[in-house]
Amino acid sequence: MDAVRELDSSRCLVFRKGMPPAPVHDVGEVSDILKETDAVVWLDLCDPTAVQIDVLHAEFGLHPLALEDATTAHERPKADAYPEYWVVVVHGITGTADGFVVHEMTIFAAHRFVVTVRHSPLYPLGQVEHRWLQDDNPMRHDSATLLYLLLDTIVEDYSNVADGFVRRVAEIEEVLFGGGHSPREFLQEVFSMRNDLRRFRRSIAPMREILTSIIHSPGDIFKADEVAYYRDVRDHAVRAIDEIDAAGDAVSSALDMQFRLENQRQGDVVKQLTVIATIFLPLTFITGFFGQNFGWLVTNIASLPTFLVFGIVLEIATVASLLLWFKVKRWL
Q1: Which of 49, 142, 274, 284 has a Cα at 20 to 30 A from 311?
Q2: Which among 126, 129, 155 has a CA at the least distance from the CA of 232?
Q3: Whole-prediction pTM value?
Q4: Of 23, 1, 21, whose CA–CA distance to 10 is shortest?
């Protein structure tokens, strides 16, 4: 098959019992290799072309509807069971300095092969390959184990990113109760984190359903002793989801608390302005009354003692009386 030569962005390995993995340079030989009883093939494609998708159909016998999941970007994570293989669409997550990156990947897992189709940005599979090839790996080199390693590595990244969100929530709470922060910048940080949490949860939440489907699936792809490993992965996935839910609740609580603190601050400002206005109200009346140009006021309030009594002492007494009243009413 000449078209197979165009698979420049792919990598294909074959695993045989008791032998080191061997590269398959011509993917057109895969259909013959799959006839061997002890061979397991792992084909990895990156941003596949139409020619590569045709090869998957020709060499692995994958259904056209299943291949649509590999060619369609932004597919929702899911797991579909076909008579002889599984199609698992997952979102890998890798953390970055300012957040995380979502990687889309489709996995075809059968008794004799595993095909991984990755879309840009590509999810790194170096750790999966290392765990798969290490000499002290107690697990079998079969397709179910490779699928387990893929899902376990992805879920492990979920936990790492979830732990990062938990640390960010703790920092936000520390800033909130420590005071001295800018309300605008704080709200921007909280809203940004809340959006990140929602996007992160949309990517990882289906993993619980995916693993549950695999654990309760019939067929000969997954042996009874291997299902226990998938249960362990599901437990880790549930823990990551619970952490994200708790972080989301904490962020919402921090947002509500910020609004309450802001309302309280505004209330304090309004109260202070009200006290000042209330104090100046009688002072304004006194100065306005004695500032009238009536003859009696002009002729009788002429001496310095009279001016001090009506012009200063009366106003000071008024202010003191109001402050004492505010103190009794606990308005200050």
Answers
A1: 274
A2: 155
A3: 0.77
A4: 23
What's the token pair of residue 256? Answer: 């509500």
Identify the weakest region by mean pLDDT among 101-105, 114-118, 194-198, 321-325: 321-325
The domain limits of the chain are 2-261, 267-328
Asked whether the beta carbons of 83 and 111 are under 8 A apart, the reply is: no
C-alpha distances in Å from residue 221, one per residue of 1, 234, 286, 297: 29, 18, 95, 107
Q: Are the C-beta atoms of 93 and 154 separated by less than 8 Å?
A: yes
Q: What is the CB neighbour count within 10 angstroms for residue 196?
A: 18
Query: Is 302 exposed, middle or buried, given 0-12, 13-18 or 19+ CB atoms closer than 10 A?
Result: exposed
Contact status, residue 207 vs residue 90, Cβ threshold 8 Å? yes
Rg (CA), the chain: 36
* Orientation angle between helical segments 143-178 and 126-133, nearest 10 degrees: 130
* Ramachandran quadrant class, 172 (left: phi over 0; alpha: psi -120 to 50; beta: rest): alpha
The C-alpha angle with vertex 32 and arms to 31 and 37, in degrees rounded to 5, equals 105
Q: Would you identify the CATH topology of the domain 2-261?
A: Beta Polymerase; domain 2 (3.30.460)
Surface-to-core class of residue 194, CB atoms within 10 Å of its CB (0-12 exposed, 13-18 middle, 19+ buried): middle
pLDDT in tens, 130-188: 888 775 555 667 888 899 999 999 999 999 999 999 998 888 888 887 777 787 888 88
- At 121-141, the pLDDT tens digits run 999 998 888 888 775 555 667
Residue 223's pLDDT is what?
A: 75
Structure tokens that stand for 297 in this block: 């006021």
